[in-house]
Amino acid sequence: MPYDFHSDHEGYLAFLAENARKSIMPFVQPHLPCPWSDCRVLELGCGEGGNLMPFAEAGAYCVGIDLNEKKIREGQRIMSAYIDQGRMELRAEDIFNPAIAAEFTGRFHLIVLKDVIEHIPRKQEALRQMRRFLAEGGLLFIGWPPWRMPFGGHQQIARSSLLGRLPWVHLLPRSLYAAVLRAFQEPKEVYDELLEIHDYRVGIRSLNRWVAEAELHPVVRRYYLINPIYSYKFGLKERLQWPWLQAIPWLRDFFTTSGYYLLSAHPSAEPTP
Fold this sequence. Notes:
13 helices, disordered N terminus, Rossmann fold
């Protein structure tokens, strides 16, 4: 991201960890092929490692990779205790680097992709690459804000407080959206970031299609009316999507603030909705 969301950045990492501890880990743990103490976890787009903290605390061996070298260096400082214990590695790497592909193939019991897939340009290739990285029985977790939800364009990062509070403004055609960003005089780094998300957007139906094309199979799919992390950001209690709304896909997409997917390289029983 172009800048920190919060002035208390280490506090932000702490509530990322708390969200992973209370939301992500209980979602994936019942389906893992091994206990946490035997589990190898990879996070793509790990930033400073906030999401990985509770996995390391539970005894898992964690590897985080990110293209942003500055974030990795800062994460290595913040997470030094886990790194010194041999529980965590943070590396500035690209998953398409052939050396990384060779090292990671068949290695991980869990891969975590939290609020990252909407920033990846080559999604189908990335999903196929992550499939290769899974160990036998391994699982891929994806959590993301679906594109059509009120703030699916991440416009809350705008410097303009008014623009940051405008729901669904990101659904404007690209040229008109760019004009709006210019009218609000957004700085170049924010302007570029918001247009990149517009270009790389991930809707629910799009992700379902890319998952199928990558020969990944849903184990559990869960949709939230109120994103679990909003309890830390805004003091709102998480809430699952209403069943009646979930049954109307076109309408559901506009009011689903988060999707949680757990995927396997092998077909499983009928996935939990």
